[in-house]
Design a protein that fits this description.
Blueprint: E1 3-4, E2 11-17, H1 23-26, E3 41-46, E4 58-64, E5 72-75, E6 90-91, E7 96-102, E8 110-116, H2 120-134, E9 142-149, E10 151-158, E11 161-168, E12 183-188, E13 203-204, E14 210-212, E15 217-223, E16 230-235, E17 254-257, E18 262-264, E19 274-280, H3 285-289, H4 291-300, E20 305-311, H5 316-325, E21 331-334, H6 337-342, E22 350-354, E23 360-362, H7 367-373
Length: about 375
């Protein structure tokens, strides 16, 4: 597993002025020599590989001259808020900076994250979102895009099959073999891997993890803790259950509409329209945020798409409150444990697009993406 796979941008590395740091935190920090820099700010890198909690689930970073072309970074690698014992500062290159953070408990393990500056167009498009959903009124001065480099991949050949295998350090602690957390992903040989969540093809690592290539089934017998290698053995294809993925036909799950009427997936298929299953909950902030896009799909593209929303395990009062608040007019119903488990509905919102024949086009496609692609589908 000799390649670090470049994930898409995962989030935002937001820089805050030192003056906005909480007194309880600032009073504990020993600063490095900042006499030759200006515009000093702080930020936090998400990382769980530590045995101390000066910064819970993260590592503090100071950035000097952040407005320049080559800002300086000081990283509190041992998470003790003492930057005087840190290594020398790191300098931003023309395009990015990679920061490798060691796991305090197991120093041979580390996690690397890359930061790069947005261009002017990206900045304009993203700034409003950060202010509304990330900083929520808290003053900040700038931001970078961040990219976790926590997927190691390698190419694998077995008889007629050639595939690419990836192992994901999903809980971001520098270790790649944490059971019930880290994940295996499969893709084309020397090409792209599948998505990194279960809905798009990732398999959660456990004591008996299986995966399929084109013709064969395999069991994973060992994963190196630093992600440099995995061991597999072939197993009879019939002894492993193929997980449902994009391109496969969805099962005809039955469920109940809010009206009390019983129905099933294929009751909505068979014509020329696609089925868009939207899984939501009232507590889910993202479900509220995407409602305008869902409304547009229903109002402008009902000739191409049937929209059905499914709620799981919320009482009727909370469901009705949500639907009334947004004047939802399309069909709503109740998801089931079977549907949630077999379609990997773990995080919300989740949106699955199914073609008229019942084949899954995408396991998780945001309504804004669907709106942009709907004429090509």
């Amino acid at each position: 597993m000799n390649t670090i796979y470049d994930q898409p941008n995962r989030g935002f590395f937001v820089l805050y002025p030192i003056t906005e740091m909480e007194d309880s935190l600032r009073g504990r920090i020993t600063l490095p020599n900042l006499s030759e820099v200006s515009d000093t700010v702080f930020a936090q890198i998400y990382f769980t590989g530590k045995n101390q909690s000066a910064i819970e689930n993260g590592v503090l970073v100071l950035v000097g001259d952040y407005s320049s072309e080559s800002p300086l970074f000081w990283v509190d690698y041992n998470n003790n808020l003492d930057f005087s014992d840190a290594n020398e500062s790191l300098q931003f290159s023309e395009e990015f900076i990679d920061i490798s953070i060691p796991n305090i408990d197991e120093t041979h393990l580390s996690h690397t994250i890359r930061f790069h500056k947005p261009d002017s167009e990206q900045k304009d498009q993203t700034k409003q979102m950060i202010e509304q959903y990330i900083t929520k009124g808290k003053p900040y001065v700038d931001f970078y895009f961040d990219q976790r480099r926590n997927i190691r991949v390698g190419d694998f050949v077995y008889q007629q099959d050639s595939i690419r295998i990836g192992i994901i350090d999903h809980n971001v602690n520098g270790k790649y073999n944490d059971l019930d957390s880290d994940r295996i992903v499969i893709g084309e040989y020397d090409g792209e891997i599948n998505g990194t969540d279960e809905a798009s093809g990732a398999v959660v690592l456990d004591s008996t993890t299986y995966f399929h290539s084109t013709n064969y089934g395999f069991e994973i017998t060992e994963v190196a803790d630093n992600g440099t290698s995995i061991s597999v053995k072939p197993t009879l294809s019939g002894t492993t259950e193929r997980r449902i993925t994009e391109g496969q036909s969805v099962y005809d799950y039955t469920f109940e509409l809010l009206s009390g009427e019983k129905t099933s997936i294929y009751d909505f298929l068979g014509g020329e329209k696609m089925l868009y299953l939207n899984f939501w909950a009232n507590w889910c902030a993202g479900c509220h945020q995407e409602i305008d896009d869902l409304k547009r799909i229903h109002s402008d593209f009902s000739d191409k798409v049937i929209l059905v929303s499914l709620n799981y395990n919320e009482d009727s009062q909370r469901i009705e409150s949500f639907l009334n608040k947004y004047d939802v007019e399309w069909l709503n119903g109740y998801s089931t444990t079977e549907i949630n488990e077999e379609l990997f509905i773990q995080g919300l919102p989740r949106n699955i697009l199914i073609d008229p024949s019942g084949k899954i086009i995408e396991m998780n496609i945001h309504p804004s993406v669907l709106l942009n692609q709907i004429d090509q589908l």
